[in-house]
Each structure stands twice: as structure tokens, then as C-alpha cells.
Amino acid sequence: MIENMPKIELHCHLDGSLRDETVLEIVSGENLFSELSLSDIEKVKKVLIAPKDSDSLLDYLKSFDLPVGIMQTRESLERVSFELMEDAFEENIKYIEVRFAPLLHTKKGLDVKDVIESVLLGIHKAEEIYDIKGSLILGCMRNMSEEDAVLVIEEGKRFLGAGVVAVDLCGPEEEGFCMKYKKAFALAKEYGYRITVHAGEAASGVNVLDAVTELGAERIGHGVRTNDSKEIYELVKRKNITLEMCPTSNVQTNAVKSFEEHPFYDFYRDGLRVTINTDNRTVSDVTLSSEIDFVLNYYNMTDEDYYCIYKYAVEASFTNEDTKRWLLSFL
């Protein structure tokens, strides 16, 4: 049974993974988004869950306006991060790397330090109660400046070794975006951050190449366009760059036209290091269990295949060696 298998999630956005009930409670309690008339769970779901056939990544990203809007206090940030960890534990996820963009949560006066601290508090509280471990990846939005990225990297530095493990570039994807952030990511690497970058999702595989060669990416978020050219493909394969793949999300955002055209299985069969992830549990209306179940059945994969992918996730995780040994003990 998929539910009983140990799991690891490397690509999960906090603001895309809120409970419907929590959103309704916070909206009602703080009198937010009154123009949307969010009076019951079904109305909340309609706003939170993106269409199955979004026109594009930009269209899909509209579903984040509501969750980001309620994640503007210490209390809400701690609560939603704790609840995500709790939900993950319920489906036997042993380790999860949660990512979010701190600058999106400063609209009501919190500074970046407050924001990061609040999310870490929720993660750590869950770790004390449940048999699960979590780490935090700080996202820098690609529609913000390099100075904004540097601000996040500088403010997050104090939390390295205390829950924060890596930095990411996320949000709308344009061609050649990596060149804009070279200095910021060089600084991140100097400070000891690990590097993952969303690339090759809504633009060409050249962004995957740039993320690896210019920004030092060790992992790529999505990377469905990695096969755009032999040069890019061979680089990813040769350097053992892990692809954080999210098939349901990729079809939903029109990054690929259909599951039949999704490169996940071809990549796996050829020895590329692929992992299975939700991307956004609420926005894509998935769990890691449902995503794994779908992928294994759709591509007629075996339990042995799954445990190979699980090992890839262990090896690619940005956690310490003790935690990696612990994760391998479940096999």
C-alpha cells in the first residue's frame, strides 16, 4: 500500500499547501477578502484549487493570492507550517523540505527575520510531536530584483544550521532569468546555502543549463524541458543533477500537454535522478501518496522502482548525514 511506504518530499510550496478549513477560519476571523464572499469550505476550495487545465503557469499562480494574503502574521505562518508537517506525517512522509518566499509575507509589518522564524517555529513544533523531520528552503521571486534576493539570503543566513538549508528561485519564468541573480547566488553559496532552482518549466531548457552552470544548482525544480537539447540533457545526467518532478502540476500549468507527453518515465528509465513531488498540495489538489500512486500506476512501475526513486530523494536531500542514514533505515 502506498500509504504505508516511507516517503520524502523535496518540492512542496508552503503557500500552495494550506488546509481549506484553516483558510476559512483565518479569513473569517480577520475579516479578509470580503469581496470574495468566502462563507463556506466549497467557496474557499474554488479559489484555492487551480483549474485542471490552466492556460499557463501564470494562470495557475493566481490561486496563491488568497493563501499569501492570510499568511501575514506570526501566528498564521507558524500555524500553516505546523499543519503542513502534520498533514505530511499523516501520509508517512519521513522528511519534507518546505519552500516559500519570505518577502511575500511582509505586507503587514513583519520583517524577513520574523517571517522565517515563524515558519521554522511551526516546523520545529511538529518535529517535537511527530516522527517527521523538516527543512526550509528560502525562495527568491523571479519577478523581484537581485537586491531583494540578497536581502532574503542575508536575513536567512542566521538560520542556516537551524532549519534553513537552501535557497531557490521561483515564480514566473522568463528566458535567461538566471543571469539576473548570479551575484546573489554566489553569495548564497559562500554562506553555505544549498542551491535549487525552478527551471525548464514554463520556458526552455536553456534555463536548466544556466541554473547549473551559472548559479550552481544542485537540483532543478521541474526541469521538464531538460530534453530540449543533447547538451543540456547530458550535463544534467553527467553531474547527477536531481530533478524535482511534479507531474500533476506540470500538466495543470500546461508545462506539458498531457501525462503521456510527460518526460518523467523516460528520464527515469535512462538513469536521470528524478523524484516525485506535489509542488502544491492544495492548489493542485494532490497528496504525495496520490501523486506516487498515480505515477507508479500510469507508467506501470514497480515497488523496486519506487524505492530507487526514494533513494535518489535521500541522496539529493539537503539534510545532514545522520538524517540521511535514518531515512535509509526505512528501506
Automatic annotation (TrEMBL):
Known EC number: 3.5.4.4
Cofactor: Zn(2+)
Primary enzyme class: hydrolase
One annotated GO molecular function: hydrolase activity
InterPro entries xrefs: A_deaminase_dom, Ado/ade_deaminase, Metal_Hydrolase
Transmembrane residue ranges: none
UniProt keyword Glycosyltransferase present: no
NCBIfam families xrefs: aden_deam
Homology family: Belongs to the metallo-dependent hydrolases superfamily. Adenosine and AMP deaminases family.
Protein name: adenosine deaminase
Protein species of origin: Metaclostridioides mangenotii
